[in-house]
Design a protein that fits this description.
The protein is an all-beta fold. Helix content is 0%, strand content 50%.
Amino acid sequence: QVQLVESGGGLVQAGDSLRLSCAASGLTFGWYTIAWFRQAPGKEREFVAGITGNSGYTYYADSVKGRFTISRDNAKNTVYLQMNSLKLEDTAVYYCAAPKDKYYTGSEYYRYVYWGQGTQVTVSS
């Protein structure tokens, strides 16, 4: 059974940094693309960042490019999202996800079938 567990969310001020973690089990982690999505109240779930398996290729939404960094430690079955220069509009529940096709490299949320429970990130002024 695939399980993804996010952690690291919290309440921070604008301009602060935060690192999220996504611990995975039940899948051949090193082969899988893992992505981060987020959903703010009243808004659709949106793609944030993704990282492929073996090659570690990374890709980002324009809204976070240059501020957020996704990385992975395959020995620990964990993906990280380092978030710097946080803005009020970054407030959301953040989810990590894995696609049905482990090699999928994209931002379409419906291609991701394994999801964590989410972690809340709140940025205050």
